[in-house]
Structures are given as structure tokens and as C-alpha cells.
Fold:
Amino acid sequence: MKVLLINGSPNMKGCTYTALTEVRKTLNEAGVDTEIIHVGNKDLRGCSATFDEINKYFTISGMPVVSSQYWNSVHGYTPEDVRKDEEGLQSMRTLGENRAFLIKSISLGKEKFGLPEKETRIGTNFIR
Structure:
């Protein structure tokens, strides 16, 4: 299993990258392979609109969404500032730990119970 970490910041090695490297470090220590990709130089809408859409796509696709202990964010004007945000970095580590736990739990559950059966999707016809 591989976790894809998406850096949507226009600053390739800025504050967001610093936060993602904290998550990455925690995942790697738990034996989970990771990759950080930078999309901040692509023609995408703002962070809040993109984050919301990704989460909606995950939930309508049946993908589990992992949480942390608080907001999944760090604070700082520079990467050095972010490294001083102990609460934010702890939140990033907790996010990584929770993701690693979920990945391992799903893998064990698949071995023992298999995957849930899915019903054929029934689309709503809004025009009657």
C-alpha cells in the first residue's frame, strides 16, 4: 500500500511541504510507502475548494477518510516557523499514525473477512 501526499501549495518546499514531510516520516517509520507530489504549479482552484472536493470524492467512492486529533494544519510564515509549531506537527504525526493504523487494519480485515459486497448502484432520476 502506498500513500500519496498532495502538495497543493504554489511553494514547492514551503510550509505545506514541511507538514507533509512530518506525515511522511511517521508513515515511513510504520512501514508504509509514500510519495509526495506537487500540484501547486497546476491550474487548480484554491486550497479550500480543492480540499473539499477531494474529501467529497473520497466519501462518494467509499474511501475511508482519516482524521487527526485537531485541525490538520500547521501554522507559520516559513518552513522554519512550521518546525516550531509543536501542536501542528503533533497533529501531522497523529494523522500519519492513524493512516498507518487504518491501512494495516483494512489489510488484516481483508484477509480475515474479505471486502464488503457492493450493491449495484441505483441512480436517482430527478426528471419524472
Summary: The chain is about 50% helix and 10% strand.
